[in-house]
Amino acid sequence: MLTDFGKVFIFFLIGGLFVAAGLIAAWVIRPKRWYPSKLSTYECGEIPVGDAIVKFNIRFYVIALIFLIFDVEVVFLFPWAVVFKNLGMFAFIEMLVFLSILFVGYAYVWVKGDLEWDKPAPQLPSINSKQLKISTPQTTPD
Amino acid sequence: MNLVDIIFYFFALITLVSAAITVYSRNIIYSAFSLLFTFFGVAGIYVLLNADFIAVAQILIYVGGILMLLVFGVMLTHKVINVEIKTGILNVVPGSIITAIIGGTLCGVFVVTDWFIVEGVPPIKSTTTEIGTMFMTKYLLPFEIASVVLLVALIGAAYIARRDKSKNQSA
Amino acid sequence: MELLISVIKIVVVMGVMLGIVAYVVLLERRLSAAIQNRIGPNRVGWQGLLQPIADVVKLVFKEDIVPLKSNRFIHDLAPIISLAVALTTFAVVPFGDKINLFGYDIKLQIADVNIGILFILALTSLGVYGLTLSGWSSNSKYALLGGVRSSAQMISYELSMGLAVLGVVMIAGSLQLDTIVEAQAGWKWNIILQPIGFITFVTAAFAETNRLPFDLPEAEPELVAGYHTEYSGMKFAAYYLSEYANMFVSSAIITTLYLGGWQVPFVHSFGFSDFWIGIIQVFGFLTKVILFVSFFIIIRWTIPRFRYDQLMNLGWKFMLPVSILNLLITGLVILLLS
After folding, report:
1. What is the pLDDT of residues C42-73, one digit of tens each?
2. Domain membership of residue C287 as a residue range
3. Is residue C88 in some structural domain?
């Protein structure tokens, strides 16, 4: 007896196997002629500068935190939506209470500016003509 | 041993092995990513237990939310001051004592409990309807309290994570 | 026997799907050429119809370059995750009613999972890892920026996607995609009942598939090729295919949820036999999906890209409240009608 989840699992396995088989076939066929400069990280033809792990805008982390809370809320809403038609008015009011409590939180993060994707002010590179030294702006990338 | 048992042990193996990698890996990003397979294995076990809603909620919240948060955290802190963050072994004695106590308690509970085993359960059609009905009737108060808990968590998380605007940007 | 039927079904569906996806790539190239008043690839086969095969042959013979500083294992694993997840999502989409073939009643859906919609959302959240992993493992600045951007973008729009779907769930009273399609019989398509939900869902789908105007993760002018900058050969092909597979599957999901799925209006009034009605419904489904894919493509070649802060503002300050509002309106209307 194969359950529906079993079928999905077989589908996933066959899909993964198919992709892996394609990669392995290409590995057998393709040429392998490497030399160091071919294997260097791409940086528009220049020699790579520094490390790739750069400091990120902390915003990404805050967004993930807020997302987590709302994700839990959405998951809570699904069982309610399924039975909504059977329970009617009562379920609607209950959900209004649930949503309005969370709406307070949403309003809080909005007012406090946590949803704002603030960009650092642009710092133009300045050229010191005497020393011919270009100072690069220190900003966190998005 | 029938097919269901084999599948169970398969998922249990995935869960345990990846959990072990999470704990023992010296590279913190490997730890974070093997956690992905741990959650996946646990979701598989939930499916075997006919708890389809819990299984998907597990993937949605733990894999989609919490693990993403962990990965962001790792990526944000990885090699901050050109020092690779690696896990080390410390506090061996207190750690093993606590592990022994918790492990012993769990094993004790497992042995002592008079497990109620139902034979030949008909496959449940969907647990979501049941969960929804329960939320709206019997467990209404916990359901509403959950929203208050979420509110507190949201405000707390936003408050702690908020960048202090007066300080420099690398918070 | 049941197992055999399932496996045959899976292999056939996957083969057909990959074929369609390969030709969606060609469709995009020809359509974009038409939009830009070019001709597009037309040399390989009649009107370029053999182009996908030529592309695959070319990519198989391409050298696989993995940068020295990258993490080899995760670099190899990431495209497999990306494409396998994109393909698996289709497993729960019904592409037709039951059909009688060689004496067996075959349901034209791989798996009728009873929490279908949640399953799709869960797989979407898994798909994020394909991009994030590639970005991290490449150890390249462009790739990493692309990976982090895509994950933040996808989680932001996942919320509106989930909330928009809730309206459909309330109308059908089920998470099963099959039931949702049956609830849209005749002309009761959800696009008419749920116009706001439809627009939010489609917008979120564009963001989830990283298509223009939401293709910040691979914005060419600033990030070279984004998360797949360091990929070449078959692994690049896997990413390329997964983008189009995602587009195809999203169109299939949108068709199922909002455009009536495999329902073809008035098909029963022409007096065909059941077998032919089944065939017509499958083709009706495919037609709707391909039309929607064309919509995806036309949008890509018509509209400029968002800036990252605009994208985040749209997701958090507009889409989220609107989808919650849609939820409340749907609830009220259902209450008033019952």
Report:
1. 888 888 888 888 888 888 888 888 887 777 88
2. 60-337
3. yes
